[in-house]
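Service request form, structural biology core

Requester: graduate student, group of Dr. S.
Request type: structure prediction, single chain
Budget code: on file
Notes: please return the result as structure tokens.

Sequence provided:
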Amino acid sequence: MSTTSVTGSGSSPGFLSGLAQAERYRYFAGRGGQRYIFTKMSVADLEDCRQAVVILLEKTDPRSGKRKSDRPVWLGEIDRHGKRHGPRLTKGRLARSDVFVHLLAENAGMRRSILNDLSFPEEAE
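Core staff response, request fulfilled:
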């Protein structure tokens, strides 16, 4: 998965290359090359989202403006009933993350397809 800003040109190498901290809209590209636009939201606003694909990234360091890791800390979805589906997510991890949502998937099948495209292989421990 890679990402670029909406105002950026083309896709940047690496997951977070060239992104400014304050940008509200970002593209995340899947393994197949398809790009999906995501909106940065607050944790509180996430509770109002339904039928969304969600990516959580570690918050940037306020001093450097950089993230410690370029990998998502969580990738999942919120169904039409407001229930989260994906790996276990603690309130602490949620609070320490920047929240990005994709709201254009029309149904559960489309969300699943996007999640499959955006999924990343687990690193060997």
